[in-house]
Amino acid sequence: MVLLLLSEWKKRLGFLPLQLTGVGVFFLCLTTGVGAQTDRLCPAELAQKFAAHLQQPDLNRAQWGIVIQPLTESQPVYQYQADRFFIPASNQKLITTAMALQELGPDFRFTTRVYQLDGGKKIQVVTSGDPSLALEDLTAIAKGLKDRGVTVIEELELVDAIAPQHYQRPSWEWDDLHYGYAPPVNGAILAGNQVTLTLTPQDLGEPLATEWSDTIAGEQWQITNQTQTEVEPGQSPQVRQIFGQRQLVITGALPPAGDPREITLAVADPPGYFLASLQQKLAEQGITVNSHSLSTNTTAIAPVPVLTLTSPPLRELIKTVNQDSNNLYAEALLNAIQPPSHGTNWQSYLEKLGLAPTTVRLRDGSGLSRQDLVTPQTLVQLLINQTQRSTGTIYQQSLAVAGRSGTLERSFADTPLVGKMWGKTGTLTGVVSLTGYVENDHWGPVAFSFMVNNSDLGAAVLREAMKQMVLWTAEVEKCQPSGQ
Asked: Which CATH class is domain 41-106+314-475?
């Protein structure tokens, strides 16, 4: 990745490499226009700007951590509370995807295998936690069995090796667990383990109409509808789960002429949803199922599967993790690295990434846990280390691009950094983070990490503050002392 970025920079700005050792590159500037900037931003001036920036009344109440380090330098050009612990939010995905590339390899694929016994009397579907499996894949299974002459299945067995007590991370907050961004992470994942509830206004005074995007998934929930259609709604629609029950209470209101409101919720019983959906697809192909069962035993009933479905390769899956910030995909990758039943000791994996385990506390793969902790310096070190690996380009290409893709598609559109910054965002209440690489006129690629915790400001305000920080990071240069 580093060589790619530097070569592109060289073409664009007219730099000639004089020496190349690892990631260390020294340039001679051949074009006077690039080097003849009148508004120079030296590290000392950068520090002054950051100090003034963070002392603004609306920013200084929060805890900030910052590291800025060019790939060609051994030390940061700016750091602030770099070795303090911060809740990373979705910046945790940077660690998860790097670990997945390291442990699984860029060509790794999840597989779903179908086995047949006794001429089709018993069918076994062995899942592996593929987060990309869709309803169309179940249709492919049904058609494949029909093509093999199967018309009656005496026993349909679904194998999901992950036990229900491991479907969510223990440190996830209860209020998150019924939403689609925090779905169960099991072995038999289908359609992202998500279902959409659409609320539509009716005549004045009537409850909002409810409709599920998938009836099988939706009917796993019992709904108590306390909504209203009101001229001036006092509260927008809200959903809460009754503790320990598959019951949702919906409150709030919409105006009579208002647009419908869509709320993405988690599937309540993922294996049950998978089995019921598969039976529906089999029925559509004229295949009758007399009985079904769920097992955690992955032992195959036959030597060779009759059908095998595979996910996209890991190099593509991590784009969904980092560009779209998909929590399910991140957790599925963490399960693939180390099944949840094997414990939560990640020290050896972190050491292989070149990170000090004492600077990371890993409680999940997505960053949804508020028990995750990491230092800004560790995230920057991770990015630098990744550039020195054979998978460095794959890793960098998995990140969102300023003004172009993922969670940064609408960011920096009004700045010169469109297409010149690759990063990962992170957001929880009171927490915002942004870590990535940005092209710099003087140093080429620069790794940075901006983290804020314990803030009472909205995410949009904090992101705007970080936006200015990234712009300064792109402008800073190594200045010679006066008189030289």
From this structure: alpha beta
Strands 360-361 and 373-374, by their bridges, are antiparallel
Q: What is the pLDDT of residues 432-448, one digit of tens each?
A: 999 999 999 999 999 99
Distance of CA 244 to the CA centre of its chain: 27
User: For residues 26 and 42, what is the distance between their CA atoms, to the nearest angstrom?
Assistant: 18
pLDDT at 7 over 60: no
What percentage of residues in the chain have a pLDDT greater than 70? 91
The closest alpha carbon to 316, from 4, 136, 108, belongs to: 108
The per-residue pLDDT for range 288-320, each reduced to its tens digit, is 999 999 999 999 999 999 999 999 999 999 999
Per-domain boundaries in the chain: 41-106+314-475, 111-165+270-310, 191-266
Q: Read off φ and ψ for residue 220, nearest 5 degrees.
A: -70, -20
| Tens-digit pLDDT profile for residues 81-107 | 999 999 999 999 999 999 999 999 999
- Which residue is associated with the tokens 């919720």? 265
* Virtual torsion, Cα 274, 278, 281, 287, nearest 10 deg: -160
Specify the pLDDT at position 343.
Answer: 73
Residue 48 tokens read as: 């002054």
In this chain, the answer to whether the domains covering 41-106+314-475 and 111-165+270-310 adopt an identical fold is no
Per-residue pLDDT, 31: 29
Q: Regarding predicted confidence, which is higher, 206 or 29?
A: 206
Smallest Cα–Cα separation from 52: which of 479, 472, 477, 474? 472
Higher pLDDT, 19 or 242: 242
- Lowest average pLDDT, out of 4-8, 143-147, 332-336, 475-479, goes to 4-8
Place of tokens 């920096």: 412
Q: Is the dihedral of CA 202, 205, 206, 212 positive or negative?
A: positive
Write down the CATH superfamily of domain 111-165+270-310. D-Ala-D-Ala carboxypeptidase C, peptidase S13 (3.50.80.20)
